[in-house]
Amino acid sequence: MTSSSSQRFSDEPNQLNEWLWVFSPNKNSFSTTSWWLDCGTEPVLIDCPALTSSNLSTLKKLSEGKTPKIILTNRKAHSSVSELKEALGCKVLIQEQEAYLLPQLNGLETFQDEINTVSGLKLLWTPGPTPGSCIVFAPEPWNVLFCGRLLIPVKFGELASIRHETTFHWAMQQKSLKKLRDWLPREANPQLASGANLSLLMPEVLLKWEAWKYITDDHKTK
């Protein structure tokens, strides 16, 4: 199915452009929003969508003839990872702090602070939302920052890093924000793809760099 980012979420994955798909928030996994990036011979599924026939059918078609990889950006995004891994015949990449949560998963790959994938994606450990949270930066020609739960919707058209009732470590999360800013290429200004529930952003879910807003107090949200 091909559609534009101006459409509302449906039961089927929404294709935003020729290389990016977004899935409806996964109600079985803290309303995680998952993304598929078609980035060559090793496309990636970033976090786990709901295990539905529609999602599986789309993912199998997108994976055909390729070697996909699942990247998990935080411990709240693991729902059905074993079933998705088996269905797609792929490996799973996760920051080492949270690998213990998937002890029976074969083909699990881990990293410590940074890692680059075969397709040129760059991962950075950004603890705070959870101990092993990470972000995924897809440089040009994609130029998208997949934020996981480090940046989440706070109002229409805005993402921020805020203190949530389930935040693992707020001070560490603030350090991760600075770390990320220093780590990104100065001229990149990537689009932002959050891994949280994007319903607040509808109809536009892929935001410009300027959508990242700073919150300096200890604002909390549920």
Structure description:
The protein is of the alpha/beta class and 222 residues long. The protein has one domain (14-221): Ribonuclease Z/Hydroxyacylglutathione hydrolase-like (Metallo-beta-lactamase, Chain A, 4-Layer Sandwich), CATH 3.60.15. It is 15% helix and 25% strand. The chain contains 3 helices and 16 strands. Helix 1 (53-63) links the parallel strand 4 and strand 5. The radius of gyration is 16 Å and the shape is globular. Residues 1-7 and 216-222 have low confidence and may be disordered.
> From the helix content, strand content and strand pairing, which structural class follows?
alpha/beta
* Mean pLDDT, all residues: 91
Distance between the termini: 34 Å
Name the helix and strand elements from N-terminus to C-terminus, one letter apiece.
EEEEHEHEEEEEEEEEHEE
At the first level of CATH, the class is: Alpha Beta
State the CATH topology. Metallo-beta-lactamase, Chain A
How many domains comprise the coordinates? Answer: 1
Descriptive key words:
single chain, 222 residues, alpha/beta, Metallo-beta-lactamase, Chain A, seven-stranded mixed beta sheet, five-stranded mixed beta sheet, 3 helices, 16 strands, 15% helix, globular, disordered N terminus
